[in-house]
Design the sequence.
């Protein structure tokens, strides 16, 4: 299956390197479960924050999570939606490749995934949601002081983006994105919990009639002065963002 996994990296995934697959992850990778260690996560965010002059810790953690969740969503959804395989993305199984600054740059997998046991929207993404995102979001919120909603919004942003992008993949079936979209359209999960990935993005019409992609919640990167808001920010401008922050 390694070859099948590698074959995914064409079309909208062309710029990404396939995950490293080996039963014995290299010593240059980080066991993802280390992210749940408060002392390690604190040191990681400090290292990552150096490039932003140790700006607001909440924004630093949010920015780190955006890189991490982007990698997670891209590889996880590609295998899930195109190959119907569940990659070993749980924190106890996954290893990470990192830049010197601590940014997640790639995934190292012990194997190339297993056939999906169920095809309904929630069960097919359970490894990603419950095995990785839920505990990591809680850890990031505790380490930074930012709301868990910020990190879930970041995860949902990339979940929605790659679900849409994969519709243009050469290997995609006509309804390839439907399971991901069905999950995002559900307010609750099967067990009654609030769905943290519910409608993370909306599309509004510009004056010229073209659609503008808008996040449901701000990623708070504007708390770092030199960055301002992102291109998909729901806030009208940086000044409005700061007004909301101080109310």
Sequence:
């Amino acid at each position: 299956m390694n070859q099948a996994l590698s074959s995914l990296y064409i079309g909208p995934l062309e710029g990404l390197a396939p995950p490293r697959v080996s039963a014995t992850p290299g010593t240059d990778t980080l066991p993802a479960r280390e992210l749940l260690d408060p002392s390690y996560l604190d040191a990681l965010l400090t290292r990552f924050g150096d490039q932003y002059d140790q700006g607001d810790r909440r924004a630093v953690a949010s920015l780190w999570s955006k890189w991490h969740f982007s990698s997670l969503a891209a590889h996880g959804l590609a295998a899930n939606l195109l190959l119907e395989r569940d990659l070993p993305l749980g924190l106890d199984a996954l290893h990470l490749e990192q830049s010197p600054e601590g940014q997640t740059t790639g995934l190292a997998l012990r194997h190339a995934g297993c056939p999906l046991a169920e095809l309904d929207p929630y069960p097919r993404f359970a490894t990603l949601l419950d095995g990785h995102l839920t505990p990591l979001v809680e850890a990031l919120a505790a380490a930074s002081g930012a709301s868990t909603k910020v990190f879930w919004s970041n995860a949902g942003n990339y979940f929605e983006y790659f679900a849409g992008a994969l519709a243009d993949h050469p290997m995609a079936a006509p309804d390839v994105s439907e399971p991901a979209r069905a999950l995002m359209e559900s307010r609750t999960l099967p067990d009654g919990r609030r769905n943290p990935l519910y409608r993370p993005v909306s599309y509004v019409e510009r004056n010229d009639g073209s659609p503008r992609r808008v996040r449901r919640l701000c990623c708070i990167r504007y708390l770092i002065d030199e960055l301002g808001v992102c291109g998909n920010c729901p806030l009208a401008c940086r000044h409005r963002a700061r007004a909301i922050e101080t109310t």
